[in-house]
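Below sits our specimen:

——
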Amino acid sequence: MFKTLRNAWSIPDLRKKMLYTLLMIFVFRLGSFIPVPGLNASALADLVEEGNSLFGMMNAFSGGAFSQATIFAMGITPYINSSIILQLLTVAIPALERLSKQGEEGRKTIAKWTRIVTVILAFIQATGLYFGIKGAVTNPGVTSYITVVLTFTAGTAFLMWLGEQITQKGVGNGISIIIFAGIVASLPTMFGNLWLAFWEFETIAWWVFALVVVFAIAMIAFVVYITDAERRVPVQYAKRMVGRKMYGGQSTHIPLKVAMAGVIPIIFAMSILSFPSTIMQFTGTPTSGFWAKFWSFFQPTSWVYVVIYFLLIVFFTYFYTAIQFNPIEVANNMKKQGGFIPGIRPGKPTSDFISRILSKITLAGAFFLGIVAIVPLVIGIVYPHLSGIHIGGSSLLIMVGVALETVKQIESQMLMRHYKGFLD
């Protein structure tokens, strides 16, 4: 990876793109320290430390901007939700499905609708956030509501624009780069807390400190391995004559990734489990009785929460994979182009064969996502001193995924320039 970055830096136009990306990241980090008028930062930090999974996710994705009550407190989360909603609607609504197949113009139209939905969701989320964190508002009222909500919405809209600029003029996917930068920005604080717990407060033993470091490295290696893992289904194309030319006859494969759904199932599961915590922000947390016991099940320190979290991740992995990949459509396209899987008849037998393989590797991917997501929670339950210094499963997957994807894009651009120079 470092060799690729070094080689890319030696190419003038790629170096310019990399510098532009770094400049946009600097702007993002600069905005993460601009406070919102009328909010008490210490009160917001207390909400994050209470263990609310929704606030914790927002704080992680925004690079700590939420706990500091800054203009980028909501981060890019509304854009992620908007993109997921548009993807789901594309499958459910035939008009949107046709639009997605119209090439560049169709993608531009869907991108425009994504921006509009993002602003609407940002305003709704900012309104809910305002009432959810009302204890952190210094002077509650109509003026403070308008100021806080519009500032949060404008901050999200600006981050969306920033991400699009990185995609067009920089390196990699801009939205992913912003999320990556926010997560990486929180790493020094996490390592600092770990070092303080070991060296100054002596709340953990030296062997626990060493075990945490080794475990973190092993988890990163495990995520890299599974993220790149794929099952390659061989495909053979029959030879056919078109005019005087012979086409086909080549062998290729269909790459079926083990972690095809990416981090989306974790985000879905976390969003659903955050509903009870969000409701408690409005109604107040009960201190005794049935409801107090019921709400305790939805705290990250509960084993029930861990089990439900794992099962939801498995469910959403299958759900999102089914939306992304359609074996029947793949089998029909192969049949039209004269392709077939060796030993399998074209048509329905091919789609059934692909479905069986997809079901098996999706199960492996679902368990992988579930384990990565719940291991930090289990460590926090078993060893409470480490509950505030772990990296969430979604954060780890995003960091690794974005780093690998960005390096691949840089390599492809370098390869394209190599062939261009060769042809010139």
About this structure: The two ends are 28 Å apart (CA to CA). DSSP finds 17 helices and five strands in the chain. The first strand starts at residue 230 and ends at 237.
